[in-house]
Design goal:
This protein is of the alpha/beta class. The chain has helices spanning about 45-55, 55-70, and strands at about 5-10, 15-20, 25-30, 35-40, 85, 90-100, 110, 115-120. The strands form 2 sheets. A 4-stranded mixed β-sheet has the order 1-2-4-3. A 4-stranded mixed β-sheet has the order 5-6-8-7, with no helix packed on it.
Amino acid sequence: MNDFPGVLNVGDLDVAVSVSPRRRSVRLTVERDASVTAVAPPQVTRAEPARMVEAKRSWLYGKLVERREPGESRPPREYVSGERFLYLGRSYRLRIVGSAAEDRRERLRRLGPDLWLPVEGR
């Protein structure tokens, strides 16, 4: 692999190729910015990544479409009792509670399956 790393043009795909002595086979990746990268072991010829791109062309196009499409927009959060939130890897229900003197030092508290949020005037 004497002319790597670099960019490999396979059809209409531009593949950024790099070499890693830790790799034993060619790895193809579609990055978040919809670019395609290949990481190959040092002993591989330039033709091997090109063959891999040709063999995986339909998979690559599918992944590129996924990356280029805007994701589903989430509805805006409503901070009301019963709304569910992910917190530290778990799902919790939000409970809006009235503010007491001892609650003023804490903004958000986790009690069992709920997140308690003290609010002034409730």
